[in-house]
Amino acid sequence: MNFAIFLLALFDGIAYAALVFIVALGLTLIFGVMRILNVAHGSLYAIGAYTSISLTGYALSLGFAPVLAFPLMIVSAVLVGILIGAPLEKFLLRRIYDKSEVLQLLMTFAVFMILEDVQRLVWGTRPYFDSSALQLLGNVTVFGVTYTAYQMILLPLVAIALLLGMRFFLRHTVTGKLITATTEDREAAQSIGVDADKVFLFTFVIGAILAGLGGALASPTTSILPGMGADMIVLSFAVVATAGLGQIEGAALTALMIGLGRSFAVYLYPEISVLVPYLIMVLVLLVRPEGLFGTSGARKI
Amino acid sequence: MKHLFVKRAVAATLAAALPMTALAADKPESLKIGMTAFLTGPASVFGVPARDATEIMVENINAEGGINGVPVEVSFIDEGAGAESLTSEYRRMVESGGAEVMLAAISSGNCQTLAPLAEDLQVPNLMWDCGTQRIFEENDYKYVFRTQANATPEMLASVIYLLKTKPDFNTIAVVNQDYAWGRDSWDIFSTALKAMKPDVEVVAEFFPKFGSPDFSTEISRLQAMRPDVILSTSWGGDLDTFVQQASQRGLLNNSTFVLPLAESSLERLGSALTDGHIVGARGDHYFLHPERRDDADFQAFMKQYEEKTGEVSVYPVFHASQAIAALQAAYDKAIEDNGVEWPSKEQLLAALEGLEFQGLGRPVTLREDNQGIEAQLMGTSVQTGDYPFATLENIMIFDGAELTTPVGEISTEWVGSLDAGFIDSVTVDTYEN
User: Which residue of A has its CA nearest to B208?
Assistant: First the structure.
């Protein structure tokens, strides 16, 4: 493998990792704060993609410029967070925080199944594809290989911005500190006047928005079709589990490992590329059952 | 004396009654048929158009008085619900639902499962869409018939079209879905290609997982390798994503794509599928079929279908039309041959042997091993501006009989025994568009 090929694999891996990280970030944030593994996260990802593509398609049909696709992605993500995420937490998850993990998992899995069917009802089974946002940014050529600027530059930048933004938010803002405090010790936080219900709701909506944003950002690059949410939840769970549940920086690093592992596999030995994320997960968990950055028991974010 | 008389009367009645049941059946109130199709899951891009088309065709038959006055009633089973639920629904539909004929299936795996079940249940089954060539090569079936081609002629047509239109290429790469169809179709394609053009070099084989949302890395590698030809027998969302991503990154300008199932994605791919790529249709299936597009029945159906679905017809619609045409032709033939009001199962099976029928494409015949002989249409993509998506030019329609593995032979062995001379020996009709 020469240097050029090495760089190509690197670019592919980073672009892929960026998208996986954005979705995994929401999943790990929710787990870190609420100790609930939200399987329905995958549906929120898919619905974010569907919403974004529908809104963009509608805007284009009204004659608006394709550049509108970018703000519409954010709008879709926020819609997913508020219209689906908020009611989900308020009316469903809130009732099961003190129940066993198995029940919680079953519950979010049931929500996932319901939302999968909702997607089919609303958008049908036909694959959608609209890459106007991606085409707007043009291509970049490296060593004779053409990449889209969207995947090679924009997605990694968004991922880095979200990582830094989330760190800053949790450590240097009041709301962020409230979330961290509630995570550390819910009862103690409540006793000094923190409204834990509000913190949970807020965290869940942010997590749901991140899932929706992941879907919206993925939408110009891939076919939007039933089943896309299931794939993503499995992969982002692999990332989150490998990193240690609730570890934000860990999720970034693991997403990068998995992304690079997969792209190097395609160059070196394509037959195992599908296996790579799970091989990494198994190897890490064999050595560190709590995940790369996981700590047993102490604070999670 | 009286005793003997009764005996004789009973014997006479029996003698009269027995052959009657063997020769004909009572005319039912309706002819119930069951059809399996993916109504959910990724393959619903095939199942839903086929269901819509079947409903239209059944309505049309019933509007003209049904089959010999008997209206047709069709029920659907979702293949997307999994093999277990599929087999139990299939069994239920035959045993207590009164289905006289079954149409199954889209998935090759489901065909492999349901063929022995149809034999057990003794229900005539028309395999209307699945591709595996193994069904009749590895087994003998009495109740199972296939109203369309199989993977072998489909892949051979792709290889021959490629070698006819681009004879001087040197390198090829493949990007297929990682499941039975992706692997089997590459087996047949590569065996045929190596047999007819031994100097060709396979530079990369990718089998990304089924339903993969991202082919970026494969595309980067293909761009670095620059193979002359890239084959993908993928379909549905996978094919759409692969071609779109390849198009965005200019890979379609560097290599010629061979896409044996792309006819079913033309409309969704829009402007992404640029000029000069090879498109197949799993048979002579194309909404602008050069030999059929001026026919009144073809035009009438296409109009009905587009009005109902808002989309142009794709190959599963044609496959469904062939199964329905076979059904109708078999009943008509059985009724006429036996001079009965309604045929028995045996009479229907006898009529199906060697049956010729015509759906929306060229006529199809059922061979002695129950395999359908179907013509194969291939073309090259071109953006003419008449439609907001690519249509076909330089269309070739190959004769199905010559491309189908001879009875009793195994496809991969037969295909491997071909040579370069085979390319020019195949009967072909060429149309500009």
Answer: A274
